[in-house]
Amino acid sequence: MVAVRRLATTQADFEAEFRRVLHWSAETDDAIEQRVAAILADVQARGDAAVLECTARFDGLQVAAMAALELTADDFAAAFEAITPAQREALQQAAARIRSYHERQLEACGRSWSYRDEDGTLLGQKVTPLDRVGIYVPGGKAAYPSSLLMNAVPARVAGVGEIVMVVPTPKGERNPLVLAAAHVAGVTRAFTIGGAQAVAALAYGTATVPRVDKITGPGNAYVASAKKRVFGTVGIDMIAGPSEILVLADGTTPADWVAMDLFSQAEHDELAQSILLSPDAAYIDAVQREIDRLLPQMPRAAIIRASLEGRGALIHTRSMEEACEISNRIAPEHLEVSSADPQRWEPLLRHAGAIFLGAYTSESLGDYCAGPNHVLPTSGTARFSSPLGVYDFQKRSSLIEVSEQGAQTLGTIAAELAHGEGLQAHARAAEMRLKR
């Protein structure tokens, strides 16, 4: 039997046990921090030479020059032709849906605008894309073409001029699906480097790797630490913690579906978190039975078991309303509302990276091809942050054009406030434009 923690909101020690379930330290190991700091400093000082040494040391990939680590459009096209027709079709359909969603996002919030007030002063906002972004695509334990699509496609939709991909290829093993996805998504340049050294190369630039304006995409603890350290030199998307799924279930969805949905996050790694909230105790029992039945069939059974037993929980609530309240406290990365009437509960849910409504909406569809982005806030940060989107690849400039008439009104106000702050040059600059 898989020993998933069982809780009930009626038990006396629920709050203490609940906090124990949610606890996860984002602190990086001191040894990792020190190694990352040394790698960043080395790449900043020696550029390509340091990247080559790190790639040989960590990825077992020894080459004489950086040119051997750069992928070309021909490499992408060859990989695209080499994969199966079914894989080509899946990549193209997923990319089309992701592109369609983010084009709608662009229409909703990504356009410049302006207006003139009654005295002729123009006020507005100019939205422009970033010039160059770097996309980190994991390539160690597993390869993630879906992650490439979710980062590159919205950058393309936003109008980013150059997309630079870095992807580790341990011992030189290139994943054809990742390269084919780069072909579909329109990656501009790519290098087979990874880890902290790849983040450093993107942030600082080398003789070969161009410096970018922002770095997006997930990675291991070394990548997360490096992104945190280079923030300010470049922008970053977020510091992601372990993957999470929270399922709110009213007992109407087949129990084996929910068990597999819990597995879908647990299989990422041992620190991933899968939680079920339900007011139906018998249904929770049924899900536990399906967990026990299905787990031996899973190729990553050991990882799933460690995740469920270490950080998973099956929680019996008094009602679906209470389940929604607890969900808002958790602010999960992925939130499934596995209910016969999901629209009833959706208005009660305030904090989540992505909300999946109804029994047929498995989280895995959102991971690959539904359209919305799968790069989501984790570890409760959905309380104040959002999924990756077109807006992450844009910046906004304020537009101000003051008319002569407008300067008379605004200048008087500004001068009064500037004198009050003791900033006389500010005040004089406004007063010079006033009619005498």
Describe this structure in words.
With 436 residues, this protein is α/β, with parallel strands linked by helices. It has helices at 14-22, 30-46, 48-59, 73-82, 85-109, 145-158, 176-185, 195-204, 221-230, 255-266, 281-294, 301-311, 320-330, 342-345, 363-368, 404-421, 424-431, and strands spanning 5-8, 70-71, 113-116, 122-129, 132-136, 162-166, 189-191, 214-216, 235-236, 244-249, 273-278, 313-316, 334-338, 354-357, 394-401. The strands form three sheets. Strands 1-12-11-10-13-14 form a six-stranded parallel beta sheet, with helices on both faces. A six-stranded mixed beta sheet has the order 2-7-6-5-8-9, sandwiched between helices. A three-stranded antiparallel beta sheet has the order 3-4-15, with no helix packed on it. α9 links the parallel β8 (214-216) and β9. It is globular and about 85 Å long. The model has no long low-confidence stretch (mean pLDDT 95).
